Amino acid sequence: MVKRLLRLDWVPVVFAALILTGIMSYYAGHYLPLAAVGSLVVMLVQFRVLDWIHKMRWRGWLIYLAGLILSLFLISQLIQLVEPSQQVEFFIWVLTPQSVLDFSGSYTLVMFLLFGIFIGFCVHFFTRIQYRVLVTFVLMMFPFLLFGREGDPMPVWLMLLLPAAYFAVMIYCRNRRPSSDAPKPAEICSGTIFLWIALAAVLILPKPAVQADRQLIESLLNFDSLTDFLMERINEFTDSSHVDGFYQNSSKIMFYVQAQEPLNLKFKTFTLYDPATDTWKAGKQDQKPDGTISPAEDPVNVDPALLSNALLHVLTADPSIGARYGLDLTGFSEQPRTTARACTVYAEKAQYNFGLTPTCWSICYGANNSSVTRSGVLYDNSVMRSYRVQYYGQQDQLTELAVYLNRTLDQEQWKQLLRHAWFGASDLPAEEREALKRAYRIVRYSRLLTDDYMAADAPEIPEGVKALAQSIVGDAQSDLEKAQLLEQYFWHNGFVYDKTYYKSPGENAETFLTSTRRGICFDFATSYVLMCRAVGIPARYVEGYSMNETDQKGMFVIRGDDAHAFAEVYLTGIGWYSMDPTISAGDTSDGLQVDSLVRFIGLMVLGGFALAVLLWWLLHRRIAEAWFRWRVFRTAPEQAASLLMARIKKQAQLSDGCTAEELSRQLQVQYQAGCDRILAALEQCIYAQRPMEGAAVPGLYVEYTLARDRITQVQREARKKRRKRKKGDSMELA
C-alpha cells in the first residue's frame, strides 16, 4: 500500500494541497478540516487531468484552455449571483482584512476555486514538467505573504509543514532530474521574473483595507487588535478627540438605520479646545450622566410649531410682554403642528451604551434605562441594540416666528421672554404650557454653559480666527445669518477635503483657516465652532456618523469609515441647530485627482515593466545576437575569429581548455557541425603569425551562423527526448 502511494507522486500533490489549505486558513479558519480535505481532493483531480492534458500535447492544452475559460466564466457568474446578498463587493472583500469582516461562505468558495486552479496548475507545471526552485519557493510563500500583509498571526502547524513540504519537493524533483540537467541562466531569469510578478501581485496591489494608523507602513498594522480598538473607541465616551481618530477606518457594518432622509447622527460632544495640541476635550456637560437625571427631566427638544403657537398665543393675549421686547407680531398666524419624524437604529452584532440621535430629537423608544447628557447625547446604562428616536427636521425648526425672534432678540432677551411667557401661560392648553416650560429649561441650560460655548475672548480662539470670523459675518444681524455665512465660507474659498493629508506638528484650526486649507471633517468642524464662538454664537463640536449608503431594502448602512464630525449651534428662538461645514469628498477633486494620478502612474509603471519583460523575453536572443554581430564586424579580423570561436564553445557547452582540433572533432561528433574556416583563420593568426584580411570576416560569420543553428537544433531535439523519457518513466510508475 505504501509503495503504491509513493508511486502516485504524492509529494507535489500534498505540497499544492498544503499551500491551498494555508491560504484558506486565512479566509476560513473555522472550517479548516473541510478546507484541508477539499484541497487534497481538488489537487488529486487536477493533477490527474493535467497529466492527461500533457500527454495529449497541443490538443490537451486546447481542451485545458477551453475548460479554464469556462471555469472562470462560471466563477464570475457565481460572484454576480452572490454579490447582491452580501454587504460588500467581492473585490473589496478580497482586499479587506478578514478580521474586520463577517465570514462569507459564498465568497470563500469562490476564493477556494480561484486559488485551487492557480496553485494546482503552477505546482504541477513547475514540479512535474519543468522544475524551478525559485518558483516553487514563491508558491510556498503565498500563505506567509497573505498573513504577513495583514499582520495576522500564522498558525504554527502551517509554518512548520509548508517548509517541510517544500524541501520534500526539492528532494523529489532532484531525484527525478538527470545529473547533466543543471540550472541554466534562462531558468534563473524566468524564476526571478516570476518572483517579482508574484511579489508585486501580493504586496503592491492597492488595498482599501481598514487601517489602524494610515501614517504608518501598512505592513506594520496589527488588524487582529484593530476591530477591538474600533469597538472600544466608539463604545465609550472618551475625554478627548484628535484628528488622528478619523484616519482609523473600517468597512465593517456597525449600524442599520431606517429613516426618511440622510442625517448626521451624533453620539459624542466636546466643549474645550486646546490649540497647542489640536485636541478637543470633554467638559462637564459632555460627561456620562451620573444616573441622577431621569429621562423625563432631560432637556430634550420640543415641537417647533407647538412652541411658536404657544408664544404667539401668550403674546397675543398679553401685548405688553411683546412690547417689552419690541416685538411686532402683525401678520403672524398659527402654525400647523409639526409631524415628528422617526429613525430606527439597529446595532449590528456589537452592543453599545450610547445612542445615535439627530440634533433636534425629542423621544426615544426602546431604551429602557436611558438618560441624556446636558449636551443632548443619549446614553443607556445597559446596552442599546435597537431603538427608535423621534426628531424634528431642520426645516421644521425654522418656523416663521422662530426666524423673526432670532433676528430680533439676543440670548438674554430670549431667555427672559420664555420665562415671562411661561408664567403667563396659565390659560393655555397643557401641551403648550409644557412646551414653554421645556424650552425655558433648555435655554437655561445653555445659558449656564455660556462661558464654555461662546466666550469670544477665550484663549483657545486664536486672534487670526477671531479676525477672520468678524470679516466673514460683516454686518449680519441675526445669529442664523452669521452661522450660515460662516458655513458657506468653507464652500467657496478653496478649501479641500483630503484624507491623504496629514498635519505637521504645530498645525491647528488657525493654520487650517489661514494657510493649508486642506483637511478632513475634524478640521472643518473645529474651525467652524471656533469662528461661531468668536462672533458670539454658542457652539459645540460633535462627533457621530453620516448616512450615505443604502442597502437593497432601503435602509441606511453605517460603517466604521462613515465617522463624521460636525457642529451644533444654539440659535435664539430656534434652539440647538446642526451645521455641517465639511465639503463633500465629491466636491474636492484636487485630493482625488492626486490619488487617481498616483494610481494611474503606478499602473503605467507596472504595465511598462510587464511589457518590457515580455519584449525582452521574446527578443533578447535576437538583441544579443545583433550586438554580437556588431562587435564581430567592428573589431579586428584576428579578434573576430577569436570571438566567433568563443561563442561556438559557449553554445556547444564545451570546455574552454580544449584545443582547436579537439573542438572541431567534438563539433563533428556531437552536432555534425563544422567550423574549419574559423579554425584555419585562428591557426593563421596565432601559430603562423600572419595577418588576416578583413574581407574574410563575413565568410567566417556565415560559417558561425551555420554551426550555431545546427547546435541549437541538436540541443532542442535532445531536450525533447529527455521530456519523452521523463514522461515514460512517470507513466511506468503510475
From TrEMBL:
Pfam family, one: Transglut_core
Gene Ontology biological process: proteolysis
UniProt domain Transglutaminase-like: residue ranges: 513-583
Signal peptide location: none
Example GO molecular function: peptidase activity
Membrane-spanning residues: 7-25, 31-50, 62-82, 107-126, 131-148, 154-173, 185-205, 597-619
Keywords, in A-Z order: Hydrolase, Membrane, Protease, Transmembrane, Transmembrane helix
PANTHER family per record: PROTEIN-GLUTAMINE GAMMA-GLUTAMYLTRANSFERASE
Protein's name in the database: Transglutaminase-like enzymes, putative cysteine proteases
